[in-house]
Design a protein that fits this description.
There is one protein chain. By secondary structure, the chain is mainly alpha-helical. It has a single domain, classed as Arp2/3 complex 21 kDa subunit ARPC3. The chain is built from seven helices and two strands; from the N terminus they run H-E-E-H-H-H-H-H-H. Helix 2 packs across helix 6, helix 3 runs antiparallel to helix 4 and helix 4 runs antiparallel to helix 5. One of its GO terms (molecular function) is biotin transmembrane transporter activity.
């Protein structure tokens, strides 16, 4: 790892952490709130790729595990990994890796549509379905009800995917940003 990518990884970790300061939107029908940190997870993968994007997410989760209140609502500590949002937290590095993998495979011909479809399928649908299934297991909800509850997150996560894909596409196709990544 070069110093440049160490800085990029730390910067992306900081951006995800700052997004945690935006207050979460609690939902009356489930214990997991709507958060903006997903945009940071998506952007880490889109901008840094599978290796460094995933690393920035893992670093954030390690900082949270040590007790730093970097998740929405000022949550932190090892206990969040056993609570209702544990499935979402454990899926964050997986989502970052998979989106980053597609980004790496299509890096030379990256465009908004590739980023958007990837981010919606992996970042919105996969994250929400698996996260709510694990939430259901932790809170003793039937899997069918958990999957139905995941539909609550989909519209907001599609908007987050559009924002991350748009920002990622503009930056990845900008000549100055491409020089920074070399």
């Amino acid at each position: 790892m070069t110093t440049k990518y160490l800085v990029y990884t730390g910067l992306m970790t900081a951006i995800i952490a700052v997004l945690g300061f935006v207050p979460a939107i609690p939902l009356p029908i489930m214990p997991v709130p709507i958060v903006l940190q997903n945009i940071g997870i998506f952007l880490a993968a889109i901008l840094l790729g599978r290796k460094y994007g995933t690393l920035s997410v893992i670093i954030l989760l390690m900082l949270v595990a040590t007790g730093l209140p970097l998740l929405s609502g000022g949550r932190g500590g090892i206990g969040v990994f056993a609570g209702p949002s544990a499935g979402f937290l454990f899926m964050y590095p997986v989502v970052a890796y998979l989106i980053g993998l597609v980004r790496d495979l299509y890096f030379k011909k990256i465009n908004f549509i590739v980023l958007l479809i990837t981010t919606i399928v992996i970042g919105a649908i996969l994250l929400d379905v698996v996260g709510t299934i694990i939430m259901g297991l932790i809170t003793n909800l039937p899997i069918s009800k958990s999957i139905t509850l995941s539909l609550v997150f989909i519209p907001g996560d599609i908007v987050k995917a559009i924002i991350a894909s748009l920002v990622g596409n503009v930056l990845l196709n900008h000549s100055r940003f491409q020089q920074l990544l070399k």
